[in-house]
């Protein structure tokens, strides 16, 4: 059996996106149909709502689904059915396929390549037995495509993940890098904790609040809202090192904005980046598979490459941490639809409400610092089970405690 190797001018990435992909909106980054089909198959939200988020008509949405059902993943290379003479040796075509996949994806190891070959065999692209992972590893070594150092670095470790998609998103900026136009790119990444699905990969010109807010709105409009977002303590997410009197937490403007949309923001422990382990791992993968392999002219050029690689990461690349599934198969859009208009907070009838003035509120004749982020907002004060201790709420979240002890 001979496995027909694709024309070298036709890359695996070309194969992944050869479904006539078009931008959903000329004002946003290019999105691809494969992701739409996978999310539609999850039946998590109504088809009409999914079409609305992707800014396509129901007719177009159904057309994509029908084409996917009829033709599957178009553009995969055709394979010869000619049998090989020796069943004890890896067929030359399979060996060539392993090498071709590795050359196009130098950061992918034997485990991922094994899974990809299994998928291709299940689709009838070839009939030979997929070589064992140890055999694939030997082939990579024989062709000089893997080093002993890399083998020694591969160590298993304990993982924790949330049970459902959108329970937690991890978000952070990858380290910035120089562009050929003498400016810098600050990649903003958002990862779903459960599925490892990349919610967003954005080429940003800064790390400011307005930039993050607008890109998060883009993500919310497409995928819905998460329950919680995990970030570090730095700007613009938090106010690292700043506390009100008596050691109470200070809230950032970004954190307050999320509260108005019923999204909880939590922060990783200072100086413990492993708290955001999935984001850290995503950043290493992004660097190994994309950022370290070429330079970029400007932000649009960078974003264009981000878009292509993101689709490959979500829809094609097997992920070891999720049993070599692709993230898109485990992800489902959130049922919590983003609403641009924020409703006023509704407090309990027994609550005492106060308006925050320049970051301060007054209760029982005593001033308490709440933070400038809440200036002009109304908050609720509720007694606790401990006499003399009260809790201050903004919407449904406690923002500090008041003590009269």
Please provide a written account of the structure.
- It is a single chain.
- The chain has helices at residues 12-16, 33-41, 47-53, 58-71, 92-104, 110-122, 133-142, 148-153, 209-223, 253-260, 277-289, 299-315, 327-330, and strands spanning 168-173, 177-178, 184-192, 198-204, 228-231, 264-267, 352-355, 360-363, 366-369, 378-383, 389-394, 397-403.
- The chain is an alpha+beta fold.
- Among the domains are: 168-330, Ribonuclease H-like superfamily/Ribonuclease H (Nucleotidyltransferase, domain 5, 2-Layer Sandwich); 352-403, no CATH class.
- The strands form 3 sheets. Strands 1, 2, 3, 4, 5 and 6 form a 6-stranded mixed beta sheet that branches. Strands 7-10-11-12 form a 4-stranded antiparallel beta sheet, with no helix packed on it. A two-stranded antiparallel sheet has the order 8-9.
- The termini are far apart.
- Residues 1-30, 74-82 and 150-159 have low confidence and may be disordered.
Briefly summarize what is shown.
The chain is 33% helix and 16% strand. It is of the alpha+beta class.
| CATH classification, class level of the domain at 168-330 | Alpha Beta
Assign a percent range to the helix content. Answer: 25-40%
| Count of helix runs | 13
Radius of gyration: 25 Å
Topology:
Blueprint: H1 12-16, H2 33-41, H3 47-53, H4 58-71, H5 92-104, H6 110-122, H7 133-142, H8 148-153, E1 168-173, E2 177-178, E3 184-192, E4 198-204, H9 209-223, E5 228-231, H10 253-260, E6 264-267, H11 277-289, H12 299-315, H13 327-330, E7 352-355, E8 360-363, E9 366-369, E10 378-383, E11 389-394, E12 397-403
Helix pairs in contact: 2-4, 6-7
């Amino acid at each position: 059996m001979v496995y027909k190797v694709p024309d070298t001018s036709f890359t695996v990435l070309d194969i992944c996106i050869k479904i006539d992909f078009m931008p959903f909106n000329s004002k946003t980054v290019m999105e691809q149909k494969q992701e739409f089909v996978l999310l539609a198959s999850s039946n998590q939200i109504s088809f009409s709502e999914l079409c609305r988020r992707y800014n396509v008509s129901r007719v177009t949405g159904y057309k994509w689904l029908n084409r996917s059902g009829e033709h599957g993943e178009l553009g995969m290379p055709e394979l010869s059915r000619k049998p090989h003479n020796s069943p004890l040796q890896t067929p030359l075509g399979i060996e060539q396929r392993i090498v071709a996949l590795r050359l196009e994806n130098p950061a992918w190891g034997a485990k991922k390549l094994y899974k990809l070959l299994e998928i291709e065999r299940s689709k009838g692209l070839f009939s030979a037995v997929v070589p064992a992972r140890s055999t694939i590893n030997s082939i990579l070594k024989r062709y000089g495509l893997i080093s002993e150092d890399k083998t020694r670095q591969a160590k298993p470790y304990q993982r924790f993940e949330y049970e459902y998609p959108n329970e937690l998103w991890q978000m952070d900026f990858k380290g910035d890098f120089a562009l050929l136009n003498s400016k810098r790119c600050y990649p903003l990444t958002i990862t779903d904790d459960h599925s490892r699905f990349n919610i967003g990969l954005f080429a940003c010109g800064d790390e400011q609040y307005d930039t993050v807010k607008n890109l998060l709105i883009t993500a919310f409009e497409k995928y819905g809202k998460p329950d919680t977002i995990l970030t570090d303590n730095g700007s613009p997410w938090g106010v690292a090192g700043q506390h009100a009197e008596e050691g109470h937490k200070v809230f950032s403007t970004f954190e307050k904005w999320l509260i108005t949309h019923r999204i909880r923001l939590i922060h990783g422990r200072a100086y413990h980046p492993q708290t955001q382990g999935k984001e850290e791992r995503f950043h290493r993968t992004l660097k190994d598979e994309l950022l370290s392999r070429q330079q970029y002219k400007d932000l649009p050029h960078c974003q264009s490459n981000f878009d292509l690689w993101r689709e490959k990461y979500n829809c094609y690349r097997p992920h070891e941490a999720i049993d070599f599934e692709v993230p898109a198969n485990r992800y489902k859009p959130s049922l919590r639809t983003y609403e641009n208009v924020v409703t006023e907070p509704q407090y309990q009838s027994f609550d005492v409400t106060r308006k925050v003035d320049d970051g301060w509120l007054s209760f029982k004749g005593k001033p308490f610092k709440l933070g400038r982020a809440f200036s002009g907002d109304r908050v609720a004060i509720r007694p606790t089970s401990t006499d003399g201790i009260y809790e201050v709420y903004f919407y449904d979240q406690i923002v500090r405690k008041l003590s009269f002890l």
